[in-house]
């Protein structure tokens, strides 16, 4: 799940040659989630003109996909949203004959993603990660003590603790499908629960800390963490690591890091998928297969700091990334992770109403 605008987000052009595929490719992807170099090389190698549009929430992508006629050839939905979009006929099955690089994918991670898309029929994993806590090491220590360990959702969901760090800025994702499961995990309830009672209790917990939250947004926190404008954010793992890298580059004494809470956290998979009405489906297969080349996806991981599911690429990924348990968690942490929930339309409406109350405090 990724998020700040691609520098070359409009178009990467290459002169077509008779031996090349030619044509166009329209990509709709999370912001700041692919390298300009990868796009440019694909254009050069294939003669295909690539245009890129970006979004920063699954809800935005879903609205475009369900409306139909988006004009996109490749999109990057997260598995829980993708599941119900598949049921609505949004995506076409992948032609595996055109995807020889599927052989490089990790079977275990693909199996987890297949929980939402049996047989991985409609998509392959692009990146995966967790939803946890990004924090300013020094600001939190100043308020809670040097011995305080950031390893629990209590930092955000315990009103007494949240109040102590509120002055330096708390942010949460503007995404009820992320925040509700996190709240349930903290409460010791099933984070995948569909129980009306459980969902209501989670909403009450989120409302109880509303006064301590500076804002709800799914991308602003990257820059704000890097600049020291906020000190605690619920965020996607790669986003927080990008914030940490920016802070280090700026060299202004801002130290940012990421924690996977001990109560458990959501593991999610962003998938490469082709809309049913994609105008350039063959080029879409070419592009997906290209992104599954180990050296290509390794380069992207080194840029976005998200784990990929391409096992053959891992030796090419920077050792600092593969050795970090917050990016490539050890098995004991993986065992505490849970996948997202696909809610019914009735539950979605209830969650939307609840989330509006949480955000507005009314």
From TrEMBL:
GO cellular component terms listed in the entry, alphabetical order: periplasmic space
Keywords per UniProt: Periplasm, Signal, Transport
Source superkingdom: Bacteria
Major localization listed first in the record, in broad terms: periplasm
PANTHER family per the UniProt record, alphabetical: NORSPERMIDINE SENSOR, SPERMIDINE/PUTRESCINE-BINDING PERIPLASMIC PROTEIN
Similarity field: Belongs to the bacterial solute-binding protein PotD/PotF family.
Protein known as: Putrescine-binding periplasmic protein
